[in-house]
Here is the input.
Amino acid sequence: MAFSDELEEKLGRAVSEAACRVNWFPGAGVIVEGGKGLYYYSPECVKVRVKGGMIVVEGKDLFVYETRTDELALRGKAECVRWE
Here is the structure.
């Protein structure tokens, strides 16, 4: 099974529909590109709206470090990044 097919099966949607990019830097933070806006924020959980769903970042001491038109940079101890 091709990697893209496996992703489509796990996500339940075509990979091309997931028009975002997540860069996770363990111990430093997370950058979400292609976001449509911040949906929820707490020091333990951040939810970012993206096309077709939401990116959820869970961890400790999370805070918004920088925002741009379609990019959100988070700092803190990210422990989990998932699609919702």
User: Anything to note?
Assistant: The mean pLDDT is 84. The beta strands are 21-25, 29-33, 35-41, 45-50, 53-68, 71-83. The radius of gyration is 13 Å.
